[in-house]
Amino acid sequence: MRDTVPQARLLTALAMTWGYALVEAVAGWWGHSLALLADAGHMVTDGASLGLALLAAWIAARPPSARHSYGMGRIELLAALINALAMLAVVSGIVLEAWSRFQAPQPVAGALVGAVASVGLAINLGVAWILSRSRENLNLRGALLHVMGDVFGSVAAIVAGLVVWLTGWAPIDPLLSLVIAGLVLSASLRLLRDALHSLMDGVPFDIDLDHLGRELAAVPGVSDIHDLHVWALSGERLAISAHVRVEKLADWPALLTQLLRTVQHHGIGHATFQPETIAQAPLLRREKPSALSSKPP
Fold first, then answer.
1. DSSP letter string, the chain
2. Tens of pLDDT along 155-178?
3. pLDDT at residue 286 in the model
4. CB of 136 within 8 A of CB of 3?
5. Span of 10-19, 69-78, 152-161 with lowest mean pLDDT
6. pLDDT value of residue 289
7. Is CATH 1.20.1510.10 correct for 7-199?
8. 20 to 30 A Cα–Cα from 18, which one of 1, 26, 201, 240?
9. Same fold, 7-199 and 209-294
10. Which of the four pLDDT bands, split at 50, 70 and 90, describes residue 287?
């Protein structure tokens, strides 16, 4: 299994998340608490994120084929995109319901809300701990962000329950549900941005393309680097391609080894380098290069 988090951990986190989401949903419906229902909805989307990560990892583990020569790793990026869009729908529902509650407040069982949300906070902290123990890909980073949003959402539900129980001020429930919606919205937009960026073959945000190009061009025996591209093959696999102008083509095997070591230091595992001599480069490079990194003086 190529996924960086063992299946047992993901399945445990999924069972904990969805199991308690059901408890919160029933308690929120019975206690007329929108904050608790909003937190339950958020936990459902967290579970969906974990489920999509499992499914995507299973599909991505399939070997390359004649039709998919890079493999099926991009399914992880698609799963992250679907998860982000689903969470935006949840946010819309929470905001609409909160507005109706402001217009027509309903009685809230404050003590029940506080007690259920307190247990939910412990569950969310446990799930966050499980996910944070492993290296993250795009799906799992998004899931962890959502779970941390749930942590704050549980805190908001606890506060709402205490306020209603002590003061009877019901509007605190839809007010704090909007806070939860804001947390969900923030995580969703970040995940949506990252998924779209990767699906459009964008350079990963933690890679400085110009700096990487200068670092490759600084390898002794390399004159310059051009047509440099870095993109994501999946949620955790990066690829690079570049044309390398060399001083002596006979030195290429040794230069290739140094170039591969350099990109591996940046977490790039799939590399394609095309060597060019100084005489060949002007003939091969007919179009304007997408990235050009000359050897520093």
1. ---SS-HHHHHHHHHHHHHHHHHHHHHHHHHT-HHHHHHHHHHHHHHHHHHHHHHHHHHHTSPP-SS-TT-STTHHHHHHHHHHHHHHHHHHHHHHHHHHHHHS-----HHHHHHHHHHHHHHHHHHHHHHHTS---HHHHHHHHHHHHHHHHHHHHHHHHHHHHHH--TTHHHHHHHHHHHHHHHHHHHHHHHHHHHHTTPPPTT--HHHHHHHHHTSTTEEEEEEEEEEESSSS-EEEEEEEEES-GGGHHHHHHHHHHHHHHTT--EEEEEEEETTTHHHH--SPPS-EEEPP-
2. 777 887 788 778 878 788 788 878
3. 43
4. no
5. 152-161
6. 44
7. yes
8. 1
9. no
10. very low
Side-chain-side CA neighbours of residue 256 (13 Å):
13
Please tell me the distance from the alpha carbon of residue 211 to that of residue 217, in angstroms, as a whole number: 10
Is residue 297 predicted with pLDDT exceeding 80? Answer: no
CATH of domain 209-294: 3.30.70.1350
Domain residue spans in the chain? 7-199, 209-294
Q: Looking at residues 34-47, what average pLDDT do you find? A: 71
pLDDT for 4 equals 45
pLDDT of residue 152: 72
The mean pLDDT value for 208-232 works out to 93
pLDDT-derived band at 3 (thresholds 50, 70, 90) equals very low
DSSP 153-169: HHHHHHHHHHHHHHH--
Residues whose CB is less than 8 angstroms from the CB of residue 247 and which lie 6 or more positions away in sequence, other chains included: 221, 222, 223, 278
